[in-house]
């Protein structure tokens, strides 16, 4: 598992390097999926530490909402059934000084199947807000505080 993690990690680093060279600006989306029980859906990647809100890059010719729908389906078997609400747009300098991320809040959805872990997503789940998994990232915690507790939105992820 450690060897696979190292290979996957370096693949992620190489992909970000490629994107920095090939694209002037990277745009991504994240979805804060909240269920009727007040839990949030989080994922754990194979190539970066911590628990995160699901999401990913917007592809050429794709709208942000289309990318959001695709990413949630891929990472969580989640189908958006209502209108996602744009919360804010953030500068995310973690991998690139050109990265912008739009955060959407999703309350109307269905999950028809349990997601199957793969090379990218190794763990997932809905978690109560007062019992987030150990390793939930600072950025994820900050976005939850903004959306759910009225903390002023930051400009930086």
General description of the model:
The chain has about 160 residues and is an alpha+beta fold. It has one domain (about 1-150): Alpha-Beta Complex (Nucleoside Triphosphate Pyrophosphohydrolase). The chain is about 30% helix and about 30% strand. It has helices spanning about 1-20, 65-75, 140-150; strands at about 25-35, 40-45, 50, 55, 80, 85-90, 100-105, 110, 120-130. The strands form three sheets. A four-stranded mixed β-sheet has the order 4-1-7-6, with helices on both faces. Strands 3-2-9 form a three-stranded antiparallel β-sheet, with no helix packed on it. A two-stranded antiparallel ribbon has the order 5-8. A hairpin with a 7-residue loop joins strand 6 (about 85-90) and strand 7 (about 100-105). It is globular and about 45 Å long. The chain starts with a helix and ends in an 8-residue tail after the last helix. The mean pLDDT is about 90.
The rounded Rg comes to: 15 Å
The portion of residues forming beta strands comes to: 25-35%
- Total tally of structural domains: 1
CATH superfamily: Nucleoside Triphosphate Pyrophosphohydrolase
The dominant shape is globular
The CATH topology label is Nucleoside Triphosphate Pyrophosphohydrolase
CATH class: Alpha Beta
Percentage of helical residues? Answer: 25-40%
Q: From the helix content, strand content and strand pairing, which structural class follows?
A: alpha+beta
Jot down its keywords.
single chain, 157 residues, alpha+beta, Nucleoside Triphosphate Pyrophosphohydrolase, 9 strands, 31% strand
